[in-house]
Write a structure and sequence with these properties.
This protein has a domain at 27-84. The chain contains four helices and no strands. The chain has helices at residues 7-22, 29-50, 56-82, 87-111. The two termini are 24 Å apart.
Length: 115
Amino acid sequence: MIGSNGMRACSADLRQVLDECNFNHQLDFAEFQVLHDAADARLDALVRRYGNRRGSEQLQQFQLACEQMAKMLQVSCLAMQRAQLCEQERHQVREAYEYQVAYIQACLHRSFEGF
């Protein structure tokens, strides 16, 4: 059943997108943009809702940091592609990036334990 705010449906949609990303499904540009827009919309809604409370500035800083991280990930990957690495080096680069993303996911889970 979906609540009046539609949160369950959105959560189910998000879970599907995350599962697709985690199973190496490459999102096309439209899917990527929808995910980006949905992520921004969620944080924007929190900022509007809690904008006058202590801690709302951290929400905005987090959103900006996410934008910067995504941009740097893409830019640095392009730089690595241009470096004409061998297959083993490309594997090492991808593994290093995946570890960074896993670390961020672990931070997310750890931060929300007992929330």
